Structure formats: C-alpha cells, structure tokens
Amino acid sequence: MSEEEQQSQDGDKPDLPQDQSQTDYQARAEDDENTPDVTYANIPADPSMDQPETDHQARVNDVRNTLNAKNAGIPDRAYPGVCSFLYAHRSCLAAGIAVLLSLGLAPLTFSNKEEISQLSTTIKSAQGHINQLTNAVDALKRDQDNMRQLSTTVDAFKRDLDNERTRTAALEQRLHEIGKEGYTLWRGICYKAFNSRKNFNGAAAACREDGGTLAMPRDAETNAFLVSLYNSVHSDRAFWIGLHDQREEGRFEWVDGSALGPYNSWGMGEPNDSGDGEDCVSYSEVESTENMWNDFDCNGLINFICQTAPVSCPLGYWKWRGTCYSVVNDKKSFSNATTTCRKDGGTLFMPKDAETNAILISLAGKQSHWIGLHDQREEGHFEWLDGSALGAFNSWDRDSNEPDNIRNQDCVRWKVAKWHDRACNELKRFICQVVPKQT
C-alpha cells in the first residue's frame, strides 16, 4: 500500500491517541530490525538471495503494521514486549515444549510399557491357572459321572443283596419251622446228634419224646451225612443208630420194623455178636473200624442220633421249643379269642414255665393279652385250657395283689410277663399256640 493510500485511509479515520506501550512496542521492533544477526554475520551474502530477502522483509513489515493497527488499543503495562517476544520466537518455543513433553513422558511411557509387560505376564499366568482349573473341573465332572454310575451300580447291588437276604431269611425261617431246635434238615428229614450217653432203649425213648426215632441211614449218602454230623459233636465216641437184631439173632431190622435192605456199612469183621450179647448197632469208636457200623451190647451207655419228620407252623406263627405261637392284635373277649385259636388247631397261649412266659415279651411288647388260664369252673382253682391244673410255676403280679377276683374276674391276661385276673368279657389282644404239623 502506498503512502498516499495509507494517508487517505488514515484521513478517513479519527485520530486515536497513541499510548506509551504502543510507542515502546514500535521502538523495540525497529531495534530488532537494526540488530545484526550474529548467526549469519560471517556468512558472505549471496546476491541471488537479495531479492527474496527484500520480499520477505516487506511481508514482515506488512504483518507488523497490521498487528500494530489491530493491537493499538491493547494495554501492555504489566509485561511490555512479551507478546512481541513470544511471537518472534514461537518456533523455538514450540520445539522446546515438544522436547520437554518428550522428556517428561519418556519415563512414563517406559513405566507403562513395563507395567503392561508385567500385566501381560500375569494374565498369561492367570490364563494358565484357568486352563488348569478348567481341566480339573472337567476331570471332576467325569469323576462325578463315574460316581453316579457307580452309585447306580451299588444301588442295584444293594437291592440284589436285600433280595438275597430276604430270600435267605425266608429259607432260614422255613428250616426253623420244619426242623426242631438243634436238628439239621437232610433230604426231607431232620437229624440231631445228642452228646449224652444212654443205653439203646433209653436213647430210643429220648428220640420218641422228641417226636422221632433213632436215626436210620438206609443209603450211603445219608450214612455219610450222619458221620459228619456226629463228628461235629464228638468225633471219638460211639453213637447209637436205629438198627438191631434183638428179636432174631442175625436178622437185623430198623426200629420202625422194616428189614435191613441191600445197603450196609459194617466194619471189617462186623457184625460178630461178640460174647453172644451184641444185638444193637452203633457207629464204631475203634480206630480200625472208625465211622463204620458195629454190633454192640444194647446196655452200653453211648451217645445217639435221632431223626424226626419235618414240621411246619401255620402262616403267621413263630416256632419256639417245638410249639408255634402267634400274637393277634384284634381285641376279643376270652371266649371269642379261644374260638379263634381253635380254628388254627390250637389254644390260647399256655406259659407253663418261666422261659416260655418270658420269651414272648419280644413279641407282645407292653400290651396286655389273654392267655389260656382261668378259674371259671371253680373260684380260685385256676386251670389251663387243655384241662391241666396250674402247676408250681406262676407269674402273678404280687405287687398288685393278683389274683384279686374284683367284680368276678375269672380269666387271666398276660402283660410284660405278669399275670392279672380280669373279667372274661373284656376285649383284649391274645396269643395263640399250636403244635407244628409234620410235612
């Protein structure tokens, strides 16, 4: 812009007062122009660069004039010349700030990298642990599945075992029912070896009292069974069997009257009727003829073996000492209870000894039950339902002054092994007993 145009424009504007700060600013700018540049003072001038320098100087002057015009009214009283200085050295300031920022952030960047590296290592380690835990969980799941399968198998085995136990218990109960106490069932017959000494007739009588006879081994298998049976009781003693020739010498017969068949188990040289008095037969205790048959003096005292037919109790009965018992929980009068027991072929319970009286505690508990004892025919004269008189044994509750015959009490109840007389028309539970039947 020419001076005339500048003056023309200036003439169009009102004169503005120039403050001291504006004058100082212009003076400093002029000083900067006149100050030689020490950086390039010794470098010879390049004629080719004169023209661009002139143009550059002109542009700087134009910018300065423009800034002076725009900032003419801005006060700079506090820090004179600061704006000019900052503007003139803006490139250096920017570079310095960048360097400072780089220097300040460098440790932070290094620290972050180190922390990131540590975190990465930690994450990898955690991932490894997670993988291990995942594998462990999978293994536990497999073990759990296996345990479920094993549990199912064990449950099946338990059911099978329970069924087998039930079956075994039923078989044992069946054996208990069909055989007398101490007897062993073999091929449908019950046998027992007695460890007590009797002569032949005494042994035969003892077997009859037990509901049987002396043992009659009619075949080799039964004979071998009896040998093992008596050896389990006493292996070095002789045992009577049910064979003799008392009616005719040399003609042996069984105690049931049947003749000795084709089977026999005589020892060497037997029978020999030594001394013309050996008419009964036993298993020999002599070493040379041990476990073989031997004719022996019928008056000799030796052990013996009995046999009896198997017996069974009616359904719902329990056998003890050769008698079957049943506890009935339906309450009835004495007369009706007696009728119910007779339908099963028995009577009301008749505990004639202390052992029988006490054995039913486990069955009857603490409830009161009718037993087969009464004095209906004669007051004070108690008798059993089979017609036999009350013997030496009784179990009256003496603490309650029983029997007291209050209000015509002629029938007897059993409660926890104690007896009380009661009115016969009272309704009570009852116990039946029957003789087991041979099968």
Automatic annotation (TrEMBL):
Family annotation (SUPFAM superfamilies): C-type lectin-like
Highest taxon, organism lineage: Eukaryota
Keyword set, alphabetical order: Coiled coil, Disulfide bond, Lectin
Pfam families documented for this protein: Lectin_C
Coiled coil (UniProt feature): 123-174
Keyword check for Disulfide bond: yes
Residues annotated as domain C-type lectin: 186-307, 320-433
Stretches for region Disordered: 1-57
Residues passing through the membrane, by range: none
GO MF, one example: carbohydrate binding
Protein name: CD209 antigen-like
Record lineage: Eukaryota, Metazoa, Chordata, Cephalochordata, Leptocardii
